[in-house]
Amino acid sequence: MAAPHSALTAPGSVNALTEPGQRGVVRVLGGPGTGKTELLIRTAATHIAAGTDPESVLLLTGSARLGSRVRGAITSALLGDTGQVTREPLVRTLHSYAFAVLRQAAQRAGDPPPRLITSAEQDGIIRELLAGDLEDGDDASVDWPLHLRPALGTAGFATELRDLLARCTERGVDPADLRRIGRKAGRPEWVAAARFAQVYEQVMLLRSAVGMAAPQATVPALGAAELVGAALEAFAVDPALLDAERARIKLLLVDDAQHLDPQAALLVRVLAAGAQLTVIAGDPSQTVFGYRGAEPTLLYGPDDQPQVVLTESHRCSPAVAGAVAAVARRLPGVDASRALTPATTDELGSLSVRVAGSPHAESALIADALRRAHLVDGVPWSQMAVIVRSVPSAGTALARALTAAGVPVQQQAGTAPPAQHP
């Protein structure tokens, strides 16, 4: 049964969230740098200081970019100087929490703990199965369309197939659903992918049951995209486990809710049904992970449901905040969270737009701006950054041009699986 909703004592007031008596679901909307995460931390810290058991507080985030150092700082802020010790982390990603649920389910059933398959291992299994289909030809277990068979042995096809299976898993689309969608849309490649998904599941079950001596090998290995769906299934199979989690979690905080796919959003709703207070924060205008199925559905609710809109940017200078707000006003749709006002500061900042006639000219402009900032204005190299739309398509060439111009470059490590870096 869902927790009863009540209007905020001061609608739209940030301070209302920190009142221990608050109940229901509250949505916090705001652009980048408006203090959404900080507000979640303050909410949790205030409730803990008022006597809420830290074990009943859970902050979920849809992004794994929250490093251990930042996570430690958040946990320290939540606990304050109380010296209390918790058995479970206060801050988790959705996938980390889902894995913990599966571990609890295994303990309750007397089964071995779950095992997470690596991207490299998953790539290897998919390539092995595709190679077998290519070798078997017309006798293969999967009837691939003729125009796709030459691509079965390529790394690119295996990667695209793995992404398709992952996106289906995140949206709760099983092989039968994918087959039905493929037939309805007249896409034989989707029908074949559905059959491949069935074969893949059977192979993973067999690999977990025989041929491996490690105790954890008796449990089917799960990919990262399968964790949330498996946790929801564990709750459905063992209602007592769900009841225990709902009884434990009284304050549920969700950060970056716009990054959540439908399965992750469903998991949040399942937990929120038992929480006394649920605070869901995010930026509905962001679509960073839209290509992975992320939807900002959690950030929209009934009109009578309270929400807090943050518009003061603590990250952007007045010049940058003004430019962002001007662009946002020209976009279709009306959203109060798109408004962005700069925080009070003595630094006005600056913004300039330059159009280059070619990629080479663009690299020269960027190198010149960086060198002038360092040599004339005395800005350290470590305080400069260049943001590009795509690192593979533009970042590598730009990095070479900057290095040739005497600008030191430090590129972020690639996030591709090891199988793509032989």
Q: How is this structure best described in words?
A:
The protein has 422 residues and is of the alpha/beta class. The chain contains 13 helices and ten strands. The protein has helices at residues 36-49, 68-79, 94-109, 119-136, 155-170, 175-185, 188-209, 227-237, 239-248, 262-272, 318-329, 359-375, 391-404; strands at residues 24-30, 57-61, 91-93, 115-116, 221-222, 251-255, 277-282, 307-310, 312-313, 341-342. Strands 3-2-6-7-1-8 form a six-stranded parallel sheet, sandwiched between helices. Strands 4-5 form a two-stranded parallel sheet. The longest helix is centred in the middle third of the chain and has 22 residues, at 188-209. The termini are far apart.
Beta-strand percentage range: 5-15%
Elements, N to C (H/E): EHEHEHEHHHHEHHEHEEEHEHH
Could you give the count of β-strands? 10
- pLDDT averaged residue by residue: 81
Q: C-alpha Rg, in Å?
A: 25 Å
**What is the percent of helical residues?**
40-55%
Form type: globular
* Unreliable stretches: 1-12
What spatial order of strands do you see in the largest sheet? 3-2-6-7-1-8
Key words describing this protein structure:
single chain, two-stranded parallel ribbon
In short:
The chain is an alpha/beta fold and 422 residues long. It has helices at residues 36-49, 68-79, 94-109, 119-136, 155-170, 175-185, 188-209, 227-237, 239-248, 262-272, 318-329, 359-375, 391-404, and strands at residues 24-30, 57-61, 91-93, 115-116, 221-222, 251-255, 277-282, 307-310, 312-313, 341-342.
